[in-house]
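Figure 3 (text version): structure tokens given as input.
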């Protein structure tokens, strides 16, 4: 059992590294507007790579989707649409706040709302068989989850304070050197929206769990004694990510029209092949986070705790890249200590929520 958990943690670590690193190839794209390289990467993230991964790992995955009831497909897709808005604003949040602060604030909110929103929803609608907010208040594990959420919001406040200190301390040219479009207020607004809606990915996995369970059933029948199916979530990703593609494609086309940037895709004055390759690399790397997340979740069970662990690793990796990119270079020692405390607080909250979920 211990080795199963260790494998689960390692899979989540690889997934977290992929998620925390995916934005890096975008920095190598030259001469394109944001919306142009974002949607090229997105086509790989949401349209090309997911069905390819499902085809490789799940024989007959299209049959599973075809046999799934319409309600399940619609809810999974709808959660993907909401998550797509979160993913869209995620890119903007990192664009305006940088890898370190942007990821910490966004994923902190994502962890917090991922723990709270479903239970409140189940409480309001009185959904049978689901854990409600009232249940959280009534159990030790549930109260620990709520404490973790409170700690998370505290960490976000501290990190935001560090961002304000950085904005006040650094001259404009130095801020632009570390984060080209640094804008604290705008970045925090989109980060809050992103963090709340990004949690819908976890809800989408739950909404489409029938597809994953069917893939698991078929695997167990043909591979007796081999345990749970490692790649069962790959079929759910196909439908869920269609929703994300819909949101992002519409918005990027609007921006292409508004900014007259459709020419980016054929502009020979830019390194076209290089731009397409790095955008594709970013998109593929992004999908790998959930490819490995699904593997980790299949080993560890408890989707909520797996989600929290995934968030923690992303925060750690993103802040590692923030250090490499020298996003906090030149700020005072006090500001560095403040952002360190803020990030540490967010990470602590993530583990509090994870432990609470495990106890439940």
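Below: residues designed for each position.
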């Amino acid at each position: 059992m211990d080795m199963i958990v260790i494998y689960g943690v390692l899979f989540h670590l690889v997934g977290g590294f992929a998620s925390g690193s995916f934005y890096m190839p975008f920095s190598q794209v030259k001469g394109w507007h944001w919306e142009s390289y974002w949607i090229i990467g997105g086509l790989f993230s949401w349209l090309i790579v997911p069905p390819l991964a499902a085809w490789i790992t799940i024989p007959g995955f299209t049959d599973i989707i075809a046999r799934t009831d319409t309600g399940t497909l619609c809810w999974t897709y709808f959660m993907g649409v909401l998550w797509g808005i979160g993913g869209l604003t995620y890119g903007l949040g990192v664009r305006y706040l940088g890898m370190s602060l942007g990821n910490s604030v966004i994923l902190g909110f994502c962890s917090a709302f991922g723990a709270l929103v479903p239970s409140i929803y189940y409480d309001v609608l009185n959904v049978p068989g689901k854990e409600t907010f009232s249940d959280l208040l009534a159990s030790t594990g549930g109260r620990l989850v709520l404490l973790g959420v409170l700690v998370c919001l505290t960490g976000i406040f501290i990190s935001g304070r560090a961002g304000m200190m950085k904005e006040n301390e650094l001259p404009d040219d130095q801020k632009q050197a570390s984060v080209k479009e640094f804008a604290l207020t705008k970045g925090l607004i989109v980060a809050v929206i992103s963090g709340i809606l990004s949690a819908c990915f976890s809800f989408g996995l739950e909404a489409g769990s029938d597809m994953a369970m069917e893939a698991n059933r078929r695997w167990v029948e043909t591979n007796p004694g081999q345990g749970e199916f490692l790649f069962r979530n790959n079929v759910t990703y196909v439908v869920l990510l269609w929703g994300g593609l819909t949101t992002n494609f519409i918005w990027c086309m609007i921006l292409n029209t508004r900014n007259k940037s459709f020419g980016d895709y054929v502009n020979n004055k830019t390194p076209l092949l290089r731009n397409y390759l790095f955008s594709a690399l970013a998109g593929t790397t992004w999908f790998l986070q959930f490819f490995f997340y699904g593997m980790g979740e299949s080993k560890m069970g408890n989707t909520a705790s797996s989600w929290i662990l995934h968030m923690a690793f992303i925060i750690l990796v993103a802040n590692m890249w923030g250090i490499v990119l020298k996003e906090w270079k030149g700020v005072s020692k006090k500001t560095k200590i403040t952002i360190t405390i803020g990030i540490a607080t967010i990470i602590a909250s993530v583990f509090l929520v994870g432990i609470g979920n495990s106890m439940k």
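The mean pLDDT is 81.
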